[in-house]
TrEMBL record:
Pfam families: His_Phos_1. It comes from Emericellopsis cladophorae. The lineage of its organism: Eukaryota, Fungi, Dikarya, Ascomycota, Pezizomycotina. Residues 246-257 have a biased composition (Polar residues). SMART domains: PGAM (SM00855). This is Transcription initiation factor.
Length: 257
């Protein structure tokens, strides 16, 4: 049976981090459990959002057959309550192909913590899973982001088709959430800042396979937050390529997210 539905969620409300775009030095307002400045945890509000998201995800039909998450702490922290609620030895597959987007830069961006560290923090972390793609340590242009996300989702769809999964869930970051919507529906705009696919914290987007030769997907829910007590929060949009160097900044503080 081929894959029917892809559920996409953004991580919950998190603490802030920022980067000096001239030096490439990252800093954060709250120390991350992994010790990586660009790998912040959720706030207490974010953990509440994650709990509400889990309660909602468990009710979805078709039910979720496989869980994929960006390997950054905030995404694993967001999807873990669902994995715990689902039980049945539910595993979280750490997929680097849906990891955070950093703009192209002349320096290395921070990477997620190693698998052993994350397994110690998140028991459902699948140590045996091998990611389909890896993001460049020097960041990516917007076209490169689209290319990474497209290759990743195509590979995940193929995996699901082979295993007979009806539905999968992907937990990721705002830029990837929007890129996924554009790629799945095959509607990539000429202007990246076009407001189309939304990315609220813990918002749920649902894509259903259209079928036919083009194998496109229809968006049935666009970052739905109706199940969250406080509804839509911390929306995000592309503001251009966001590449270094020059005047671009990859600040991820509260003023932007």
């Amino acid at each position: 049976m081929p894959l029917e539905v892809i559920y996409v969620v953004r991580h919950g409300f998190r603490t802030a981090w920022s980067v000096d775009h001239k030096t490439g030095v990252y800093s954060s307002s709250v120390r991350s459990p992994t010790g990586i400045a660009a790998d912040p945890p959720l706030t207490s509000h974010g953990t509440q959002q994650a709990a509400e998201l889990a309660s909602h995800l468990i009710t979805l039909r078709p039910a979720i057959d496989a869980v994929y998450s960006s390997p950054y702490y905030r995404c694993l922290q967001t999807i873990t309550p669902y994995a715990e609620l689902a039980g049945r030895d539910t595993l979280i597959r750490p997929e680097h192909g849906i990891a955070e987007w950093f703009g192209a830069a002349p320096f290395d961006h921070p990477q997620p913590a190693d698998a052993e560290t994350l397994k110690g923090m998140f028991p459902a972390y699948d140590m045996d899973y091998v990611s389909t793609r890896q993001a460049s340590r020097r960041g990516e242009t917007l076209p490169q982001l689209y290319k990474r996300v497209a290759a990743t989702v195509q590979a995940l769809i193929a995996k699901a088709d082979a295993k007979g999964h009806r539905a999968i869930v992907l937990c990721s970051h705002a830029a990837v959430v929007i890129a996924l919507g554009r790629i799945l529906t095959r509607d990539i705009p000429d202007e990246p800042d076009r407001v189309d696919f939304k990315a609220f914290t813990c918002g749920l987007s649902t894509y259903r396979r259209r079928g036919g030769d083009d194998d496109a997907w229809d968006c049935e829910l666009n970052s739905d937050c109706s199940f969250l007590t406080h509804g839509e929060e911390r929306g995000w949009n592309f503001s251009g390529d966001e590449s270094f160097p020059g005047t671009g900044s990859m600040s991820q503080d509260d003023s932007k997210l």
